[in-house]
Amino acid sequence: MSELHIRELVIDIPGRPGGLPLDFSVKPGQVWGVLGPNGAGKTTLLHTLAGLRPCRGGQVMLDDRPLADLRRRTVAQRLGLVFQERQDGFPATVLETALIGRHPFLSSWQMESAADLKLARQALARLEVSHLEDRLVSTLSGGERQRVAIATVLTQSPAIWLADEPTNHLDLHHQIAVMELLAGEAAAGKAVFMCLHDLNLAARWCDHLLLLYPDGEACWGPASRMLVPDALERLYGQRLATTELDGAPIFVPVR
User: Fold this and answer.
1) How far is CA 253 from the centre of its chain?
2) How many CB atoms lie within 10 A of CB 224?
3) For the chain, which terminus, N or C, has the lower number of CB atoms within 10 Å?
4) At residue 62, what are phi and psi to the nearest 5 degrees?
5) Residue ranges of domains in the chain, CATH in brackets
6) Is the pLDDT reported for residue 89 higher than 80?
7) Phi and psi, residue 240, nearest 5°
8) Could you tell me where the beta strands, DSSP code E, fall in 154-247?
9) Whole-angstrom distance, CA of residue 48 vs CA of residue 148
């Protein structure tokens, strides 16, 4: 299994001075949550870790090699990215979209195999969108499109998941189903690193947290150490009340 090492990384956010360098590792079996207000740099960080944006300093290592030195095909075979928003480049059905997850493993002009098709259909079934496989993605609701996007990365079967608001557009049932799926991926030896707006989902499902403050400050570590009301209230500029359910803290905004 692969590991992602962030070494003295300073992300590049236009109009903001360089923030605190980030230095941590995302290891197999871990579920990381990134928390912070709008504009703190969560999406920029995720795109930087995927190699889609340059950084101001430091580097990202995939196992023992700099990410920038690796071929994009190699990166795509080991890193899977769930975007917060996506655009349809061309008309495609749900099944055709899920099969995109197998493209990093195919040579030029190679067609998907029966095994690839089976993986895609299994992924669609896990996300409860099998009945939509012949529909054009452009005709789906926001929640359906989100589940298809997650199914596509599941078809890819990466060692490391990078997910930007994976529960975006989802109802409560599918939010929990997606979080359970990602936790299951980690339990199977994958690594999960995701940006979240829902503090309570992070408190319930993440074992490590990264807090990104809008001034560039950051702190990270085990969730038990990060879920401190004072730090979270300062993060969001919002008073919080806290209680506990099934051993996990619950945070409620206070007027």
Assistant:
1) 25
2) 12
3) C
4) -100, 105
5) 4-227 (3.40.50.300)
6) no
7) -130, 140
8) 160-164, 191-195, 208-212, 218-222, 240-245
9) 24
